[in-house]
Design goal:
Number of domains of chain A: 2
CATH class of the largest domain in chain B: Alpha Beta
Low-confidence stretches of chain B: 1-19
CATH class of the largest domain in chain A: Alpha Beta
Largest sheet of chain A: 6 strands, mixed
Mean pLDDT of chain A: 94
CATH architecture of the largest domain in chain B: 2-Layer Sandwich
Number of helices of chain A: 16
Helix content of chain B: 40-55%
Shape of chain B: globular
Strand content of chain B: 15-25%
CATH topology of the largest domain in chain A: Cytochrome Bc1 Complex, Chain A, domain 1
Largest interface: A-B, 83 and 101 residues
Radius of gyration of chain B: 24 Å
Distance between the termini of chain B: 56 Å
Mean pLDDT of chain B: 93
Largest sheet of chain B: 6 strands, mixed
Oligomer: heterodimer
Strand order of the largest sheet of chain B: 1-2-6-3-5-4
CATH superfamily of the largest domain in chain A: Metalloenzyme, LuxS/M16 peptidase-like
Strand order of the largest sheet of chain A: 2-3-7-4-6-5
Radius of gyration of chain A: 22 Å
Order of helices and strands of chain A: HEEEEHHEEHHHHHEHEEHHEEHHHHHE
Number of helices of chain B: 16
Structural class of chain B: alpha+beta
Order of helices and strands of chain B: HEEEHHEEHHHHHEHEEHHEEHHHHHE
Strand content of chain A: 15-25%
Shape of chain A: globular
Helix content of chain A: 40-55%
């Protein structure tokens, strides 16, 4: 509802989808005694500390038939741990002004902590963080309640055109890979507390973790903190990855819905994190649909024709080949026409790539905006945690601008030819006439 | 208070760049105020131009024009072609956008600090030289209609909120949606947008807020260079539109395709007008924090976790605005519970505060969170610029932001109990219910209990 009020009280000119791109800064790296990877950025300006603990425990590790297990496990993790019940955790955090958060996506389950860096507060907050990671209770009544709330939330989502389209899109992209499997009310209802306990024991381990710290502490403190977090985890072993996703055959899914606007997604599984083609794809996509107001999709679909408020494309590299996605919403009667325009823009881009001016503009923005990617502790944390979790080079941020500059139009055309083929393109529409 | 003392020591030690005078301010001859908050953490800057004009200044039949004009502001001037604004910001490595609220319209760029002068040149240009082209307008109004479909027409909760406000308020323009009614958008012309621009977009109706790695003296000189030549002009009088006192409960039901019902209970509430003399808006804000400020705050603890009458429950209260205030209780009932059950439960929580008050521990906890939030907010340059801009937009001085926080720290448990007793009467209540409709004709569980 907070979102509802914000949405109602302020209208932005446009909505942008984050590219998920990263950008240079001094990241210190070491391993704990047990082998957990640690990433640390010392930042002394503000008297605060951010800590993020990531586990390879996202939904891609949901066992067959237990879709939603990873998300529910993460969701209940901080609702009672060690000797504290959920009320004690929330009250003690609030008493010291600390915020505990995090979530699970396809790849990662994250626990984040923001606290004041004054030693008494910091230590109290870190104690809670450690107990949440080490000894979640998964109390039966809490499990039953959160299971019911998750089911209700899923049923609600299944009435929303954007959620329906999103779920159908991932299912069509990944017909035989865990990325395509979705939690359903039935799959959640079938989960038991034992499933959560087993999932936690298997995946929330030292071998499967990376720890990122940003803020007002010394390296020696960071080392102690990381050791305390990792030291309480079972050694475990790294999660095993499923076979990489196969590219789907061209297909179209059309779903009925009474909404006034059609929701339209086009895309395919593209690249994984660390793929050398990522930079050419990123830079090319800036021209295609990533560059906000200056992209071709925006010009053709929104500016010239007034078909949509929001139209975009992006690459979301994941542990395994993540999606390339184009998305828009338009009045249901003109969905066909809008899709035609999108396909034309895409086809032309795949054939010809960006022109010289477009390439120069993309590079100017992506290199020029680099400082904006790093101008808060929160952004530093996000970047360092992603580098850590995905094992990207430690100098990834330092090299970012050079990587962008080195890309040629030919690199872009070739990278798109390798990863974005029409014969693999999946289209999903909801509420299109 | 010990915590506070500790914090100010920490802040003083940490923020060596924050001199006492920061933020700095100047006013140009044409009436344009320029507020600069230096923050040298990173080599970036935020540039915002705020206009004291929002949907509340619109009239019936022209709802949405403030927001449409905001869109048109990207469509060019004699010296900067259509779409060129975004292109130049992008080329400078920047990000830009704009937003329209009930009280104001604001434009911003986040840029590497070197690009700040270019941004000022661009904003100054479109402050007085916008081209409102009929062809561009014809395309852009369609975009805005799509935006309305996406945000409101196909969003059951937003639709409920829109219709509820239209019922809770009858005379005050806050009753109209910011994005405008669809029929008003359909009837709108380029001339309407142009007239809006010509009337309100003048330097004496605007202020510039800049945060980042900048020197305020240099920024003042740049402001004079770019904005100084723009001419000011007297503004038309704004009529005070006063909402008559509500004398009896109002109820509204909205049907929309959805699974879950939603309940919103909106009470008329006071707004902060005088930072020193007012006390109730602070007390209501602390009440909201005690009820819904963290995961174990009363609403979540009692209604979601213990009684399980709600899937979610919350309270929303913004105590600053140009117009009248509302405090909203809201939630979604759990499976097997109705909105009536939820309404009773929400009322019971308010009644509990009315009769028993709140504990010192609860109040202390809420205050500790506020103090920490003061530190955390400094992590975002954009957030700091927003804070200054928003408080100025409602007519309160940004210099008093810290004073407002002091006043919040002074709120007592008795103050909280007193406002709980005063502002949750049925006579000023509007209840809105989302009655979820099946997408495919399947019957749904009843939203309200059947009465016999």
């Amino acid at each position: 509802m907070k979102r509802l009020l914000t949405a109602a009280f302020a209208l932005f000119l446009s909505q942008f989808i984050a590219h998920g791109a990263l950008a240079g800064v001094k990241i210190e790296h070491w391993q704990t005694a047990g082998g957990t990877r640690v990433y640390f950025v010392e930042s002394r300006v503000l008297p605060m500390l951010d800590v993020q603990v990531d586990f390879a425990a996202g939904s891609m590790f949901d066992p067959e038939g237990k879709s939603g297990l990873a998300a529910l496990t993460r969701g209940i993790l901080d609702l009672g741990a060690g000797g504290r019940d959920e009320t004690a955790i929330a009250e003690q955090l609030a008493d010291i002004g600390a915020n505990l958060g995090g979530s699970a996506d396809t790849d990662r389950a994250s626990i984040t902590l923001r606290t004041l860096s004054a030693p008494d507060k910091r230590q109290a907050a870190l104690d809670i963080l450690a107990s949440v990671v080490h000894r979640p209770q998964f109390a039966a009544p809490v499990f039953a309640r959160e299971q019911a709330r998750t089911i209700a939330g899923l049923k609600e989502a299944m009435t929303r055109p954007d959620s329906i389209a999103g779920k159908a899109f991932w299912a069509a992209l990944y017909p035989s890979h865990p990325y395509g499997r979705q939690a359903t009310p039935e799959s959640i209802a079938a989960l038991t507390r034992d499933d959560l306990v087993a999932f936690h024991a298997r995946h929330y381990t030292a071998a499967n973790a990376s720890i990122t710290l940003v803020g007002d502490i010394a390296r020696s403190d960071a080392e102690r903190i990381a050791e305390a977090i990792a030291g309480g985890l079972p050694a475990g072993q790294a999660s095993t990855l499923p076979a990489p996703p196969e590219k789907p055959k061209w297909n179209l899914t059309q779903l009925a819905h009474p909404a006034s606007q059609a929701h339209i997604y086009l895309g395919l599984p593209a690249v994984e994190r660390g793929n050398p083609d990522y930079f050419p794809l990123l830079i090319g996509n800036y021209t295609l649909g990533g560059g906000g107001f200056v992209s071709r999709l925006m010009k053709e679909v929104r500016d010239k024709r007034g078909y949509a408020y929001s139209v975009y494309s992006y690459f979301a590299p994941l542990r395994q080949a993540g999606p390339f996605q184009i998305g828009l919403q338009t009045k249901r009667s003109q969905a066909g026409e809008a899709i035609k325009v999108v396909r034309e823009v895409l086809a032309d881009f795949l054939k010809n790539g960006p022109d010289d001016d477009e390439l120069a503009a993309a590079k100017a923005n992506l290199t020029g905006s680099f400082p904006l990617r790093l101008d808060s502790n929160k952004k530093l944390l996000d970047n360092a945690a992603a580098i850590g979790f995905y094992g990207l080079p430690l100098d990834y941020l330092d090299q970012y601008q050079a990587q962008v500059q080195a890309v040629t139009a030919r690199d872009i055309r070739q990278a798109f030819a390798r990863h974005v083929r029409q014969e693999n393109l999946v289209t999903v529409t909801v509420a299109a006439d | 208070m010990r915590l506070k003392y500790l914090l100010s020591v920490l802040l003083a030690a940490g923020l060596s760049t924050a001199a006492l005078a920061n933020p700095y301010e100047t006013t140009l001859k044409n009436g344009l105020r320029v507020i600069v908050k230096e923050d040298r953490r990173a080599p970036t800057a935020v540039h915002m131009v705020w206009y004291r004009i929002g949907s509340t200044d619109e009239v019936d039949g022209s709802s949405g024009v403030a927001h449409v004009l905001e869109h048109m502001m990207f469509k060019g001037t004699p010296s900067v072609g259509p779409g060129e604004f975004n292109k130049r910001v992008a080329a400078a490595g920047g990000r830009d956008n704009a937003f329209t609220s009930r009280d104001y319209t604001a434009y911003f760029q986040q840029v590497p600090k070197e690009s700040l002068p270019d941004m000022m040149a661009l904003e100054a240009d479109r402050m007085r030289h916008l081209t409102v082209d009929a062809k561009e307008f014809a395309q852009e109004i369609k975009v805005v209609m799509e935006e309305r479909r996406m945000r409101t027409d196909d969003n059951p909760q937003a639709k409920l909120f829109e219709q509820m406000n239209a019922v809770a308020l009858q005379a005050h323009p806050y009753r109209r949606p910011i994005i405008g009614w669809m029929s008003d958008l359909e009837a709108m012309t380029a001339a309407d947008a142009k007239a809006w621009y010509d009337t309100w977009y003048v330097p004496n109706n605007a202020y510039v807020v800049i945060t980042g790695d900048v020197d305020h003296r240099a920024v003042f000189a740049l402001a004079e260079k770019h904005y100084g030549a723009l001419e000011g002009r007297p503004l038309p009088p704004r009529r005070q539109q006063v909402e008559p006192a509500q004398q009896g409960m109002r109820r509204i039901v909205v049907k929309a395709p959805a699974e879950l019902p939603v309940l919103i209970m909106g009470y008329k509430a006071p707004i902060l007008r005088d930072i020193e003399r007012d006390s109730e808006p602070y007390a209501l804000e602390m009440l909201a924090a005690v009820l819904d400020g963290h995961d174990a705050a009363r609403f979540n603890k009692k209604l979601v976790r213990e009684e399980r009458v709600a899937l979610s429950a919350g309270i929303d209260y913004d105590n600053t605005a140009r117009g009248p205030g509302m405090i909203y209780l809201h939630g979604t009932p759990s499976e097997g519970k109705t909105v009536d059950d939820l309404e009773k439960a929400l009322r019971a929580e308010i009644a509990r505060v009315q009769s028993e008050g709140i504990s010192d521990a609860e109040l202390k906890r809420a205050k500790a969170q506020l103090l920490a939030a003061q530190v955390y907010k400094l992590d975002s340059m954009f957030g700091q610029a927003m804070e200054i801009g928003q408080i100025e937009a409602v007519g309160l001085p940004y210099q008093k932001l810290d004073r407002m926080l002091d006043k919040l720290q002074q709120v007592s448990a008795a103050d909280v109990q007193a406002v709980a007793r005063k502002y949750f009467g049925d006579d000023t209540l509007t209840v809105g219910v989302l009655d979820p409709q099946p997408l495919d004709g399947k019957p749904r569980r009843p939203v309200t209990a059947t009465r016999h």
